[in-house]
């Protein structure tokens, strides 16, 4: 009976739950799904992390390669984030080139990396104007149940913290680079950005961490990315319900608290993994 | 904290293209965007939504092919327009908004939003309210510069763009670059909100001017 | 990736660091014991799990040593492209290697190996699926290799079949895949990526890789891939080794299906004594 009602009147179904300050999956409005983290499971990647936020699963693998820096910025390396939403993760996606959604999330990741300064591109330079690292950060969604942005940011940060780069020297005779695959160095992570996404329902109810269903019904979403020095490095509200200043401030405060929890989780997971 | 409270000179020209249903050219300083609106018209079968109109925004950069960054802007602009257009009045139809960048010298996103809004008015697409956008930049010293040009944007530590609805002046869209504190955010927000009122009233004047002209022609 | 405007572009040209490595890579030498200490005909530890993708009709995850494969099944659903009416349903397979799955970074765009792999998996599964049970519709199987440490194709076949079973798609039997690497006199079951390595200059002796897809309870072979050059007798022997390998994986797969059904249907828990494995597979 409940299932039929849900199919026929999804909005009304949802409204009745929210009236009682609870969501259909049993969470409170401000509650975030259980987050689990697995670091370093892909040994073919220089760094990797698998994150589950409820059902939503994202795996991030980072491959490091050597290349020439650009002439305009000879002291800088590259970080190339790409989010893949394959047809495997949800029936909404079809095989073929990246969907608009994938492109938008990829761009958001690129913005977050740039704005937060999580990795200083200067750290990736080996020889000025000659040789630098490029980090291909590929985030692959394995299960799309809403809020991929938050999940992608956690997986990216955890994978970056997991990266070990082989030592590179430039041989004096030939000028060619020589890598020492035995000796590996971690990457210097300057900032820890964490994203928190909010959904607005019926232009009134504000809830955190929307699931796929909730994202479809929401009248607006808002993503706030904060770093550990309590600064905002991305505030992304693409249209939707207009929000007042006080509600935005409320969201910022909640995002700051959530970010602290996630950083603690990442820290604990890294410490528990013997390397 | 001091604020440079002035917007660059802005202006718009409506109905300058003959083929689209509505068009507008919006200028903020040297930044110019040309917007054209087609619709409500026929929709592609695959994009049809049964209870409302499908809104599409095509963002055309000055040179080169659109990439991920342009797709991202397109999505932001589309969602912004979707939240003001009364799409349920035209089910199973399409409204296309084409934004051609003529020149980008800073505050591009806000100029695009404003151009789209004027073009939608020109096409007589029913809307809940108007949307007006303002960009501001935060300098290294924490000073707020409203409506920055490209040089100011480059030198700043953060650039924030807000779009407000014209009824209650709440935030419809927010898109930011760079790092800033929550306090700086709130200050920028209020500064932009004040400035957006200028743009809203300008929209009103522009429409009045155009309507009075048309009425004169008819009588 | 030049010319792909739908992804964030990196530099024009880059190379993996191991290109410049000083020390040579170690590969499995002929005649020696295997690097992980296995016997020549031993399988690596296998881990199987179903129901990993919440959005899919059915899904499965498989680990064979370090090889990690995930498969999701969607359908039966409407055929996306309008085609002529068919009484038979359609099965579609797509095999993809994640960009970080191998030592050398892979590209986002489907390459030849992935295209061939998709076809082989499709051909291995088709005989097992009752296509006539869902006319006018299609079942999509998407397989992603998260890490390739050898025998990825065999793992993909097994994982896809398990995903189909989890989705409740009617099947005559499940399909189990297994590979054998023949290197001179040595025959290694379930090779790792180091054992799969083929030197540029091959010796005159037997060299090749055999992958078999087996319908274990019917004892029929649904797919057979052989590359390299093997003498007829060696080839037959290699196929036999593959089949015994498949029979070794089959009980693990059966156990996995039984326990997943128990999880999904709690009422079975009380009368678990009577449940037969046939009932669990549903369609076998």
TrEMBL record, chain A:
Pfam families in alphabetical order: RNase_PH, RNase_PH_C
GO molecular function: mRNA 3'-UTR AU-rich region binding
Superkingdom per UniProt: Eukaryota
Keyword Nucleus: yes
Cellular compartment(s): Cytoplasm; Nucleus, Nucleolus
Primary site of residence: cytoplasm
GO BP term, pick one: U1 snRNA 3'-end processing
Domain Exoribonuclease phosphorolytic, chain residue ranges per copy: 31-166, 193-256
Gene3D superfamilies, per the entry: GHMP Kinase, N-terminal domain (3.30.230.70)
Annotated SUPFAM superfamilies: Ribonuclease PH domain 2-like, Ribosomal protein S5 domain 2-like
One GO term describing the cellular component: cytoplasmic exosome (RNase complex)
Keywords linked to the UniProt accession: Cytoplasm, Exosome, Nucleus, RNA-binding, rRNA processing
Family, similarity comment: Belongs to the RNase PH family.
Stated name of the protein: Ribosomal RNA-processing protein 43
Source organism of this protein record: Branchiostoma belcheri
Automatic annotation (TrEMBL), chain B:
Primary location class: cytoplasm
A GO BP annotation: rRNA processing
Domain Exoribonuclease phosphorolytic, residue spans: 7-126, 129-188
InterPro entries listed in its UniProt record: ExoRNase_PH_dom1 (IPR001247), ExoRNase_PH_dom2 (IPR015847), ExoRNase_PH_dom2_sf (IPR036345), PNPase/RNase_PH_dom_sf (IPR027408), Ribosomal_Su5_D2-typ_SF (IPR020568), RNase_PH (IPR050080)
GO cellular component assignments: cytoplasmic exosome (RNase complex); nuclear exosome (RNase complex); nucleolus
Keywords from the UniProt entry: Cytoplasm, DNA-binding, Exosome, Nucleus, Phosphoprotein, rRNA processing
GO molecular function, one term: DNA binding
Subcellular location: Cytoplasm; Nucleus, Nucleolus
PANTHER family cross-referenced by the UniProt entry: EXOSOME COMPLEX COMPONENT, EXOSOME COMPLEX COMPONENT RRP46
Family membership: Belongs to the RNase PH family.
Subunit (UniProt): Homodimer. Component of the RNA exosome core complex (Exo-9), composed of EXOSC1, EXOSC2, EXOSC3, EXOSC4, EXOSC5, EXOSC6, EXOSC7, EXOSC8 and EXOSC9; within the complex interacts with EXOSC3, EXOSC8, and EXOSC9. The catalytically inactive RNA exosome core complex (Exo-9) associates with the catalytic subunit EXOSC10/RRP6. Exo-9 may associate with DIS3 to form the nucleolar exosome complex, or DIS3L to form the cytoplasmic exosome complex.
Protein name (record): Exosome complex component RRP46
Automatic annotation (TrEMBL), chain C:
Pfam families (UniProt xref): RNase_PH (PF01138)
Keyword Cytoplasm: yes
Domain spans labelled Exoribonuclease phosphorolytic: 43-169
Localisation per UniProt entry: Cytoplasm; Nucleus, Nucleolus
Protein origin, superkingdom: Eukaryota
Any one GO CC term of the record: nuclear exosome (RNase complex)
Region listing for Disordered, in residue ranges: 1-41
Its job: Non-catalytic component of the RNA exosome complex which has 3'->5' exoribonuclease activity and participates in a multitude of cellular RNA processing and degradation events.
Protein name: Exosome complex component MTR3
Species this protein is from: Branchiostoma belcheri
Taxonomy of the source species: Eukaryota, Metazoa, Chordata, Cephalochordata, Leptocardii
């Amino acid at each position: 009976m409940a299932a039929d009602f849900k199919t026929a009147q999804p909005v009304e179904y949802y409204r009745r739950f929210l009236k009682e300050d609870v969501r259909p999956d049993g969470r409170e409005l401000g509650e975030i799904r259980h987050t689990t983290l697995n670091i370093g499971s892909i040994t073919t990647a220089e760094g990797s992390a698998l994150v589950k936020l409820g059902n939503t699963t994202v795996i991030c693998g980072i491959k490091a390669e050597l290349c020439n820096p650009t002439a305009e910025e000879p002291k800088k390396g590259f970080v190339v984030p790409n989010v893949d939403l394959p047809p495997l993760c949800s029936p909404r996606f079809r095989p073929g080139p990246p969907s608009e959604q994938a492109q938008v999330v990829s761009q958001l990741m690129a913005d977050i990396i740039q704005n937060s300064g999580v990795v200083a591109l200067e750290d990736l330079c080996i020889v000025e104007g000659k040789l630098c690292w490029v980090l291909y950060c590929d985030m692959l969604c394995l299960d799309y149940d809403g809020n991929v942005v938050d999940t992608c940011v956690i997986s990216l940060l955890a994978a970056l913290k997991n990266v070990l780069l082989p030592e590179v020297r430039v041989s004096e005779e030939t000028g060619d680079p020589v890598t020492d695959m035995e000796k590996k160095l971690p990457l210097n992570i300057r900032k820890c950005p964490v994203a928190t996404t909010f959904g607005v329902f019926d232009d009134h109810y504000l809830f955190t961490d929307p699931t796929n269903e909730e994202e479809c019904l929401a009248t607006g979403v808002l993503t706030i990315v904060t770093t550990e020095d309590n600064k905002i490095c991305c505030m992304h509200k693409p249209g939707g319900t207009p929000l007042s200043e006080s509600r935005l401030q409320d969201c910022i405060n909640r995002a700051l608290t959530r970010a602290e929890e996630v950083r603690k989780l990442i820290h604990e997971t890294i410490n528990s993994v013997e390397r | 904290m001091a604020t440079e409270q002035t917007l660059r000179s802005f202006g718009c020209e409506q109905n300058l293209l003959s083929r689209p249903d509505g068009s507008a050219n919006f200028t903020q300083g040297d930044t110019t965007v040309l917007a054209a609106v087609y619709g409500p018209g026929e929709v592609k079968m695959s994009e049809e939504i049964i209870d409302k109109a499908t809104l599409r925004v095509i963002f055309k950069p000055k040179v080169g092919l659109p990439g991920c960054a342009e797709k991202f802007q397109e999505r932001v602009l589309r969602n912004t327009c979707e939240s003001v257009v009364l799409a349920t009045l035209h089910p199973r139809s399409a409204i296309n908004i084409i934004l051609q960048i003529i020149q980008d010298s800073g505050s591009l996103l806000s100029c695009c939003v404003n151009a789209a809004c004027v073009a939608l008015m020109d096409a007589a697409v029913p809307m809940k309210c108007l949307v007006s956008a303002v960009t501001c930049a935060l300098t290294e010293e924490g000073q707020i510069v409203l409506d920055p040009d490209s040089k100011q944007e480059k030198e700043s530590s953060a650039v924030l763009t807000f779009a407000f609805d014209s009824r209650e002046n709440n935030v419809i869209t927010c898109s930011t670059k760079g790092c800033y504190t929550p306090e700086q955010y709130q200050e920028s927000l209020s500064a932009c909100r004040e400035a957006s009122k200028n743009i809203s009233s300008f929209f009103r004047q522009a429409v009045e001017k155009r309507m009075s002209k048309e009425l004169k022609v008819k009588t | 990736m030049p010319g792909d405007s739908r992804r964030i572009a990196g530099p024009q040209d880059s190379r993996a660091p191991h290109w410049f490595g000083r020390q040579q890579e170690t590969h499995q030498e002929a005649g020696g014991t295997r690097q992980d200490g296995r016997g020549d005909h031993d399988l690596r530890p296998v881990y199987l799990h179903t129901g990993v993708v919440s959005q899919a009709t059915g899904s499965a995850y498989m680990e064979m040593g370090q090889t990690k494969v995930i498969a999701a099944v969607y359908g039966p659903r409407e055929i996306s492209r309008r085609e002529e009416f068919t009484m038979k349903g359609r099965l579609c397979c797509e095999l993809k290697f994640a960009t970080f799955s191998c030592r050398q970074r892979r590209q986002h765009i489907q390459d030849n190996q992935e295209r061939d792999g998709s076809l082989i998996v499709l051909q291995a599964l088709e005989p097992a699926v009752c296509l006539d049970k869902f006319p006018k519709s299609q079942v999509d199987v998407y397989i992603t290799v998260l890490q390739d440490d050898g025998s990825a194709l065999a793992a993909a076949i097994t994982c896809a079949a398990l995903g189909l079973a989890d989705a409740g798609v009617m099947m005559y039997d499940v399909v189990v895949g297994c590979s054998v690497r023949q290197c001179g006199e040595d025959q290694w079951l379930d090779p790792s990526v180091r054992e799969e390595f083929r030197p540029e200059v091959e010796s005159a002796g037997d060299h090749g890789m055999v992958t078999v897809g087996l319908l274990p309870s019917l004892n029929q072979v649904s797919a057979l891939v052989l590359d390299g050059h093997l003498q007829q007798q060696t080839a037959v022997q290699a196929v036999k080794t593959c089949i015994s390998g498949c029979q070794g994986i089959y009980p693990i797969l059966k156990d996995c299906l039984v326990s997943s059904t128990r999880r999904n249907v709690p009422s079975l828990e009380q009368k678990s004594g009577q449940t037969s494995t046939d009932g669990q597979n549903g369609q076998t």
